[in-house]
């Protein structure tokens, strides 16, 4: 699946984090596209992206304070050298790029950290002992997949805004616009008041690096 920069920006407007999934396997065509994008993100970032399919046991012992996952069975594992801080930063950026691409595929996603058993996850993914798991991304179909896909873009955009909060521009520490302000910065700032908190930072990042 080839995505344009504008499509990724559109994904920011509708993407919501989901902890409720169906237990269905992701269809082969979507898995193929997902793996292609995972390989691309791994190559671009130098971070190891590993897709684990049908491993619900990873989510069976979640930490209550972080929230429970329902029906989750598939996860993308991000790993690398724990002492390489640049890799940690790249894992966040390229991981979010992958999340937005998965959104365009009609998939539900949720970032996962220590709310699941990372040691078990690393073992199943056969992570090199010299590496560490930075984070993981739960991925799959929405628990109400049919309803989600039947919604228009505007309906999904409105749903996101109604269920998430936004920060005012004053709290984002953005500088004033001037004649020397780069075009990507102008585009990001124009969109920020309309977006949710996570999406605001997505927008800044995705405008910086196409």
Provide a descriptive summary of the structure in words.
With about 210 residues, this protein is α+β, with helices and mostly antiparallel strands. Helix content is about 45%, strand content about 10%. It has a four-stranded antiparallel sheet, with helices on both faces. Helix 2 runs antiparallel to helix 3 (about 85-105). Mean pLDDT is about 75; it is low at about 190-210.
SSE layout:
Layout: H1 5-14, H2 28-45, E1 48-52, E2 75-80, H3 85-104, E3 108-112, H4 118-124, E4 132-140, H5 145-150, H6 153-163, H7 183-191, H8 197-208
Overall morphology? globular
Question: Given the helix and strand composition, which structural class is it?
Answer: alpha+beta
Strands of the widest sheet, in order across it, are: 1-2-4-3
Instruction: State which percent range the strand residues make up.
Output: 5-15%
Determine the mean pLDDT: 76
Distance between the termini: 16 Å
User: How large is the radius of gyration?
Assistant: 17 Å
Number of helical segments? 8
Which stretches are poorly predicted, pLDDT < 50 over at least 5 residues? 192-210
> For the report, how would you describe the main beta sheet?
4 strands, antiparallel
**Fraction of residues in H or I helices:** 40-55%
Structure characteristics:
single chain; 210 residues; alpha+beta; 4-stranded antiparallel sheet; 8 helices; 44% helix; globular; disordered C terminus
Summarize the structure.
The chain is α+β, with helices and mostly antiparallel strands and 210 residues long. The chain contains 8 helices and 4 strands. It has helices spanning 5-14, 28-45, 85-104, 118-124, 145-150, 153-163, 183-191, 197-208, and strands at residues 48-52, 75-80, 108-112, 132-140.
């Amino acid at each position: 699946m080839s995505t344009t920069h504008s499509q990724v920006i559109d994904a920011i407007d509708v993407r919501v984090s989901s902890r409720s999934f169906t237990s269905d396997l992701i269809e082969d065509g979507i898995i193929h596209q997902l793996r292609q994008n995972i390989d691309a993100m791994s190559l671009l970032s130098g971070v190891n992206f590993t897709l684990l399919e049908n491993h619900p046991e990873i989510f069976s012992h979640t930490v209550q304070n972080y929230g429970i996952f329902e029906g989750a069975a598939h996860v993308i594992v991000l790993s690398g050298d724990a002492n390489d801080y640049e890799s940690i930063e790249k894992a966040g950026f390229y991981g979010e790029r992958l999340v937005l691409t998965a959104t365009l595929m009609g998939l539900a996603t949720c970032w996962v950290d220590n709310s699941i058993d990372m040691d078990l996850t690393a073992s199943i993914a056969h992570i090199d002992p010299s590496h560490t798991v930075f984070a993981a991304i739960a991925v799959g179909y929405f628990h109400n997949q049919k309803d989600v896909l039947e919604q228009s873009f505007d309906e999904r955009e409105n749903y996101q805004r109604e269920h998430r909060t936004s920060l005012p521009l004053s709290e984002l520490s953005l500088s004033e616009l001037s004649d020397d302000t780069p075009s990507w910065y102008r585009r990001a700032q124009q969109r920020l008041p309309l977006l949710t908190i996570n999406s605001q930072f997505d927008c800044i990042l995705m405008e910086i690096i196409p």
